[in-house]
Amino acid sequence: MLGRAVTVTTSPVRIVSLVPSQTELLYDLGLREEVVGITKFCVHPEEWFRTKTRIGGTKQVHIDQVAALRPDLILANKEENVQEQIAALAAIAPVWVSDIKTLPDALQMMAAVSELCNRTAQGAALIANIKTGFDALQQQTAIQSATTAPLKVAYGIWRKPWMWAGGDTFISDLLQRVGWENALQSLPRYPSLPLESLIDYAPDMVFLSSEPYPFKALHIEEIKAVLPTAKVLLFPILNRLFYPHDNACLQATE
Known about the structure:
CATH architecture of the largest domain: 3-Layer(aba) Sandwich
Oligomer: single chain
Distance between the termini: 26 Å
């Protein structure tokens, strides 16, 4: 997805995943024995979190621990992982890097990983299921949007400083697909914007992620003091919704 050439000569039997969502995909593809390493943020499925070797966080990968696992494939993500560490890991095993900004990107990732891991049929079934679900959802939202204007949503991902999901993000893409409008669509990908400045964008709703920043109920009141008419909700981060799963995220940060 970055235009790099990655050569995997055999069907991988020792896989390390550096991306929580892609770890869940590997589980759904039935790669129970093949996955040997995951990050401390790969909390789903729970059985893997308890039994698989954890090789650090997404941005603090322990290179020596990965090497000790002798992987023949490493899965990474452009946004989740650090470029310098990816370069170091590439000396250990082939590293396949995803770059996801839209739902079609996510489906492309699923198809590519399924092919890499010799699980093409299982991946195709998952992709078909997701497409069917989104087609039905978008038919419903099309009916609603014909009679009402879309609600404007601000999606918070960090505090101190306040940071939000701007345009050209997977979160923004999914907000539009469910019939809402990203109030900060015109801003860069993850802008730092003081809470008081949010007044200028007049969001109808404010969603607070559970990851990377572990927002709690007390932060709702903080926002309501500035935006008294907005509906404020704690929301599982949309970046984890690559496929239908219960994607409650770990209440922790790196």
